[in-house]
Fold this sequence. Notes:
With 482 residues, this protein is an alpha/beta fold. Helices cover 36% and strands 20% of the residues. The strands form 2 sheets. A 9-stranded mixed β-sheet has the order 14-13-12-11-7-10-9-8-15, sandwiched between helices. A 6-stranded parallel β-sheet has the order 3-2-1-4-5-6. It binds NADPH dihydro-nicotinamide-adenine-dinucleotide phosphate (NDP) and 6-O-phosphono-beta-D-glucopyranose. NADPH dihydro-nicotinamide-adenine-dinucleotide phosphate binds at residues 13-19, 46-48, 85-87, 118-121, 148-150.
Amino acid sequence: MSHNKKALFIIFGGTGDLAYRKLYPALYKLYKNNYLNENFAVIGTARREWSDSYYQEVVFDSIQEIKKSDEDAKQFASHFRYQSHNVNDTENYISLLKLADQLDEEYDIEGNRVFYLSVSPSFFGTVSSHLRAENLITKNGFNRLIIEKPFGTDFVNSDALNNDILESFTEEQIYRIDHYLGKEMIQMLLALRFGNPLFKQIWNKNFISNIQVTLAEDIGVEERGAYYEQSGALRDMVQNHVLQIVSFLFMNEPESNDSKSIRKAKVEALKDLKAINKENINLNFVRGQYSTSIEDSEILDYISEHEVDPESDVETFVAGKIESAHENWEGVPLYIRTGKRMRTKKTQIDIVFKQTTTNFFPKNEVKNNILSIHIGPDEGLSLQLNNKKIGHAFDIEPVHLTYKPSADAPDDYERLILSALTGDKTNFVHWDELAESWKYIDSIREAWIEADSPLYLYEANTNGPKEANELLENDENNWFWN
Ligand code: NDP
Ligand code: BG6
């Protein structure tokens, strides 16, 4: 079936890593699934002097593992053109306009444009104002601006950046990417929470003991040392992916299933987060940095990585206890942790339900019910229940009900680009969410400085410093996944 969408994509950063690894394969999947067929074209731009044919080879190369056939991949790549372009050069936008109009006509696109900013955030303002000034924004079709993270470095900076972009595009036209919102299991959270009376009734302090969110990575900072030195784990992962998950977990049921209501519920959840300050920071947040005690290891200490200051005290690991001031969540800690060079790649949410003590089952005979949401790399759900062990005796043992989505679920970028094409903003980050999350992150950073919080070294290939376990042990809890 054809769901043909008409659009011209203009990708700034067309020679970059993200475009190659994520954007071209995502566009190809949309093409393969008939969301894009005849009426689309892509202009890749960056400073490098590439020809159209070389660019098409790069695109062809990027989809080797997923292509249906060489013929199909070539046909797809033929929709791509390249323009050498410096984002600061007005002349380049004038020739870009000419090329855009020409492709619009050639592919009968009817003025629909998606501008994808896959470049450094320092260029977001410049590119958007040039797009407006040099008339790349059409009058006859839709014009949408997709922006990559990081969106700023703190609240003040992201507010200024936002105001810059708002001079050229309206909030309605801006699509801020957090690729976690394109993940199958993150989207499933809403269905799970609000589509099942079973969970809907018990998603509160009366039944939930604590919630645990883990975003563990086994890789180090790789080639991104210079960027990471400016961001650290708090800004790279907690400000966006982690707080988005937190807002889904804590939010009240939205008034209806539309992007405005969902956003409102998420913003309220973020506003309810209990304040962090210098008095409580060291009880609630732990910062760590990876190192290795193994000599001649291929794994480096963080401070020995490329473009990292040998004296750097940037955190590559954060664990925290986040609490909501909402009455539904009184006394329910939501523990988070994320880090580089942890034991394995694992993104998981564990909802730990309270134990009930009855005369029938005295305390500790039954385990907690735990709902685990496996976000990646393996996706799925599992629910730990207590069951009778098969045999003559009446012994209790935990069993796990599991669910795995089918392997052909769309991937994150594919889903988000399609949402941008259809104008569905549900899974993009609205400025109001971003503003609240930056305020929370700023309070943590300020408190770390004021309280002179320690940086705990942790051995690579472990799950972080022991202080991250103590955070839970102090509340008589433990990480379920370890
Ligand atoms: P790269 O460094 O690989 O790419 C940057 C791109 O910008 C290149 O195409 C470069 O090409 C171009 N560029 C740099 N300066 C200019 C200029 N003055 N004028 C025009 N083009 C320029 O970065 P990534 O692809 O990794 O990241 C792009 C964006 O996506 C960043 O905001 C990043 O934070 C974000 N992001 C990336 C992720 C990833 O997995 N890579 C994940 C999440 C977000 P040239 O040198 O030819 O000009
Ligand atoms: C990005 C971070 O946003 O998310 C990276 O900048 C991190 O540092 C990546 O590696 C993790 O994403 P995923 O989808 O692999 O969990």
